[in-house]
Write a structure and sequence with these properties.
Structural class: alpha+beta
CATH topology of the largest domain: FAD/NAD(P)-binding domain
Radius of gyration: 21 Å
CATH architecture of the largest domain: 3-Layer(bba) Sandwich
CATH superfamily of the largest domain: FAD/NAD(P)-binding domain
């Protein structure tokens, strides 16, 4: 891309993890960015009190494995440099599998990596690492942990070249023949930009074609810390439980597509309690100790990969990061910014097609 094509004013729709990440990456390149948020900063899935960050082992040619690995590498480096004020801990995780066949596949995958990244562990070893009795053997992921996403998002958005406007919605988006965008907001004001990035969970409706992005409802359940009940690692399989953070273990999360109910449900807490039994069968035997946690709605795709890239001239997206938003969206923001300004590294060119949001256009 020629220097004249580098945008001089970018507008990002959405102030969650995805929007804040790409805004920060562009601001770091000395490009002014305005972030528009219809609610408040980190109001959607990005507003959960704590999220798990971890690579997803799966195989050498598995794009989810590669993407989550890149995401964790970016996060670890960024947190080491800038994360002192952001509550987080790379405590590691024990990853169990659904069945013996899946375990064998991951064992073959783990054999090609250093133990500092992934290591197969027996049930006894997993018990020792977690200071608890886990349900099965599994894999130790040392480069995994938890983070509070709201302080992370706020930190990114404090960049001097980022302006944030909350409480307004983009009602209309039009491009002229020179691909300059006119953005009409719900308060009647109008803004112009030569690059617009859709980064709010369901803002793909501002694009002329519909994308195959679904809404998935997720509910967390919380378990207060108890004397004598310790947990040193995140334990995960079809869900997870965290160590006690600010006196609370978080268990999650349910996933229900096309379910718009925004209040917490006891049945979901029961589902999460059963999830806990499949992870740590002796950790808590009384569901009455559990309490309802936050309900949030995630944008997801059928192939479980986000939609990141160019939609049209001057229009880009970083959408549908699903349950891996905190792990992957920051790296995706960096990669998208490099694409926009024409500096994408050759070894990363494959991601143009893998994450191409146009793959999701409904015919």
């Amino acid at each position: 891309m020629q220097a004249s094509k580098i945008p001089t004013q970018v507008l990002v729709v959405g102030a969650g993890i995805a929007g804040a990440s790409v805004a920060y990456a562009l601001a770091q390149r000395n490009i002014p960015v305005t972030v528009i948020e219809s609610n408040h900063i980190a109001s959607g899935g990005s507003g959960n009190p704590v999220v798990v960050i971890r690579p997803e082992p799966g195989g050498e040619h598995n794009p989810i494995t590669t993407l989550t690995t890149l995401g964790m590498q970016w996060l670890v480096q960024w947190l080491a440099l800038h994360g002192q004020a952001i509550p987080h801990e790379l405590c590691g995780a024990i990853r169990m599998t659904r069945d013996a066949l899946r375990h064998q596949k991951l064992a073959q995958h783990a054999a090609h990596y250093a133990a500092e990244w992934i290591a197969e562990v027996s049930q006894e070893q997993a018990n020792q690492l977690s200071a608890n009795k886990v349900a099965d053997k599994g894999f130790h992921l040392p480069v995994a942990g938890w983070i509070e996403p709201i302080p992370f998002v706020q930190s990114l958005l404090t960049h001097a070249r980022i302006q944030v406007q909350v409480g307004v919605k983009v009602t209309q988006l039009q491009f002229d023949e020179k691909y300059v965008a006119t953005i009409t907001l719900s308060d009647g004001s109008v803004r112009n930009a030569d690059c617009v990035i859709l980064a709010s969970a369901f803002s793909d409706t501002l694009f002329s074609s519909s994308l195959a992005i679904d809404s998935a409802r997720g509910q967390l359940t919380i378990l207060p810390e108890k004397v004598g009940r310790t947990l040193d690692k995140i334990i995960c399989r079809d869900g997870y439980i965290t160590p006690a953070i600010r006196g609370i273990h978080t268990i999650g999360a349910t996933i229900q597509k096309d379910d718009a109910y925004s209040e917490a449900r006891t049945t979901d807490d029961q589902e999460n309690f059963q999830r806990l039994q499949r992870l740590l069968p002796e950790f808590c035997l009384d569901m009455s100790e559990c309490q309802s946690g936050r309900v949030a709605f995630r944008a997801v795709t059928q192939d479980r990969l986000p939609a990141v890239g160019r939609l049209a001239e001057g229009l880009y997206a970083t959408l549908a990061h699903g349950s891996r938003g905190m792990t992957c969206a920051p790296w995706c923001g960096e990669w998208l910014a490099s694409m926009i300004v024409g500096e994408a590294a050759p070894e990363l060119e494959q991601w143009r097609e893998i994450l191409n949001p146009l793959r999701l256009v409904l015919q």
